[in-house]
Design goal:
By secondary structure, this protein is α+β, with helices and mostly antiparallel strands. The chain has helices at 30-40, 89-98, 114-119, 191-200, 207-220, 248-255, 264-275, 283-289, 319-337; strands spanning 2-8, 20-27, 46-49, 55-57, 62-69, 74-77, 80-84, 123-124, 127-128, 133-140, 145-149, 171-179, 236-239, 297-298, 301-303, 310-313, 346-348. Strands 6-7-12-10-11 form a 5-stranded antiparallel beta sheet. Helix 4 (191-200) crosses helix 5 (207-220). It is globular. The chain binds flavin-adenine dinucleotide (FAD). Flavin-adenine dinucleotide binds next to strand 3, helix 3, strand 8, strand 12 and strand 13.
């Protein structure tokens, strides 16, 4: 365990902005976290961070204690794959693939840690964390007790678990277990990945072929980010907003703003693969329909030139600058289309409204 005072948090996040932590406690395994939470941390104000790729931290920093959990073990025990919440998600995926187990391979390359993956029910290319999770172990910072929770207690839905609710913010995920299969569990339906597989000759019935197809598609989509990469070339938190639910009329109208030549049927299929429902429409199309443009820039804040839903820090943007752009988008979409966009990115600390 390492404890640092007044530590800048920007280097621990993918946006590379934000202020300092009053106190930063860094842990690299679940036992370390348990010890820190039992003996070291008594602050009422506790902030949790994994790999910082889905948060926007206030320029004023975070008062109290920030607990950063990165690292830990992966083990296969009695048919379950058990990982510390600090494990880098893609290390878990490659471990499963090495064990010839299906169920996680389509989430290859999703950045971040196992803990946040559960909190956010991450999903990609038709596979979600909730599909294979068997239990989690949590530390309750109020009672200082550890207990296990099953998926049916976590209220999973699209990009949601009830660990995000105010009531459950006191729970720190320590470990998670997954039940995987020696046989294919999910059909690969996403067209970009299928096209890449055909072009490159990858066999999408194999784990290696599925991983290569998905990583290829993620590269095209600008969706690769690694905390070990210090080129600082992709300062984004991925898709900034969740795909919203729309009425059938809104969906038909918004789909017409796709300018890439895809058919409406293909777009509906993609929407249902990403959101589980064809009426959960692409937030990227919503932005385009509200008048925002790919590559649109406000100082050092930019909408990705191809993937408009990714807000980027292309220089030395402040967290407040990124926040302001996100709020302008929310307001405009509400006024123009009557759709409420909900951020996927978590805002930590104080922002000016
Ligand atoms: C380029 C890029 C592409 C992306 N692509 C996808 C994608 O395809 N699919 C997808 O679903 N997401 C995607 N994301 C979002 C991101 O990968 C996920 O949200 C990921 O789970 C974030 O992990 P993290 O460890 O960085 O979380 P952090 O940003 O550190 O934290 C996120 C939230 O989880 C909480 N948290 C972290 N650890 C714990 C813990 N142990 N216990 C309790 N709470 C905890 C934090 O307090 C915070 O509220 C992408 C992001 C980027 C930058």
């Amino acid at each position: 365990m390492t404890i640092l005072e007044h530590e800048p948090l920007a280097p621990y996040t993918s946006f590379e902005c934000g202020g300092k932590a009053d106190r930063l406690v860094i842990c690299d395994n679940h036992e370390d976290v348990r010890q820190a939470l039992t003996q070291e941390i008594n602050d009422k104000q506790l902030w949790l961070l994994g790999y910082g790729c889905n948060v926007l931290i206030s320029d004023k920093g975070l008062p109290g204690t920030t607990l950063l959990f990165r690292g830990g073990e992966i083990n296969l025990e009695g048919g379950e794959l058990i990982a510390d919440a600090g494990v880098w998600w893609d290390d878990l995926v490659t471990y499963a693939i090495d064990q010839k187990l299906f169920g996680l391979e389509l989430t290859s390359g999703v950045p971040g840690g196992v803990g946040a993956a559960i909190v956010g029910n991450i999903a990609a290319y038709g596979q979600a964390v909730a599909d294979t999770l068997s239990w989690i172990e949590v530390f309750d910072t109020e009672t200082k007790k550890i207990y296990t929770m099953k998926p049916d207690e976590l209220g999973f839905s699209y990009r949601f678990s009830n660990l995000q609710t105010d009531r459950n913010r006191r729970l720190v995920v320590l470990r998670a277990a997954f039940t995987l299969s020696p046989h294919i569990t999910h059909e690969l339906k996403y067209q970009t990945a299928i096209d890449i597989a055909e072009r490159e000759g990858y066999d999408t019935n194999t784990l290696a072929g599925r991983r290569a197809s998905v990583l290829g598609a993620r590269e095209v989509a600008g969706s690769l980010w690694d905390y070990r990469d210090d080129t600082h070339s992709n300062k984004t938190a991925g898709s900034f907003f969740r795909n919203p639910q729309a009425t059938r009329e809104q969906a038909e109208h918004i789909i017409s703003f796709d300018e890439t030549g895809k058919s409406a049927d293909l777009i509906k299929k993609m929407n249902s693969v990403h959101g589980g429902d064809s009426l959960r429409i692409s937030a990227a199309h919503v932005l385009l329909a509200a008048g925002f443009e790919r590559g649109q820039t406000w100082g050092d804040v930019r909408l990705h030139p191809q993937h408009v839903l990714k807000i980027e820090n292309v220089g030395n943007a402040k967290a407040q600058d990124i926040y302001n752009v996100s709020q302008e988008i929310v307001r405009t979409v509400q006024n123009e289309l009557g759709i409420t966009l909900v951020p996927e990115v978590r805002f930590l600390g104080e922002f000016k409204h």
